[in-house]
Fold Peptide ABC transporter ATP-binding protein.
Amino acid sequence: TPALELRNVSKTYPPPTTVTALCDVDFTVQRGETVAITGASGAGKSTLLSILGTLERPSGGTVRIAGTDTSTMSDTQLSGVRAWHIGFVFQQFFLLDHLSVLENVATGLVYRGVATSIRREHATQALERVGLAGRMRHRPAQLSGGEQQRVAIARALVGRPAVLLADEPTGNLDTANGHEIVNLLATLRETDEGTTVVLITHNNDVAAAMERKIQLQDGRIVHDSGATG
Ligand code: ADP
Ligand code: ADP
């Protein structure tokens, strides 16, 4: 099953704006692919990422996530899809300052209703995956920006989601830290889980590190370098 399948997806925001942010967007992402969504400001990138993350519903078309059609799902069912299949990473790290690194990562599992001990065990594994096993007892403020973003990535990965969605994940980082984060995202699929990564970026170097580039313009795909799977 593909990780993501979009068929003729459109999005027109409700009145008073009635902006058509996406029009006939059609693509499939296989498991383990890394995809950069690019395009000018206003092209529809954030809208697309919100739809992929089931935070927004499309006005038309269908979205399948890990093989499941989301169009007829209730809001509660969509929350379940997010909790089980999707991890989110943003430009800001959104870490909780009063919690340790380990506890921050473990919060990624609270919606799954698993026991604290299991959450800690999986959080430890996720921190190992991002190379931060040595920082578990630190507080976020004691880490560099790049390390904080790695904690946020570990929190997104802790539930082993089918898809990791990232909105400008290097936007708050300097060149060296940005480089480290992009290399981490680009190589996640090489580890055993084969995580699919879809990110939004304005940065050509970041886009170049992903296997596949999809460019949006005025809500339509104007270039898709194609599945490489
Ligand atoms: P990008 O992320 O590429 O900058 P967006 O998806 O944010 O593009 O926006 C695409 C278009 O949809 C823009 O014209 C924007 O003004 C419009 N838009 C985005 N969000 C909303 C919203 N919540 N309500 C109305 N229009 C919106
Ligand atoms: P900018 O400040 O140039 O917009 P970003 O904050 O978007 O940069 O990205 C951080 C930096 O990380 C960029 O300068 C980019 O060159 C660098 N970078 C990250 N990953 C890679 C990579 N895999 N290859 C080359 N450069 C990268």
User: Anything to note?
Assistant: The chain has a mean pLDDT of 94.
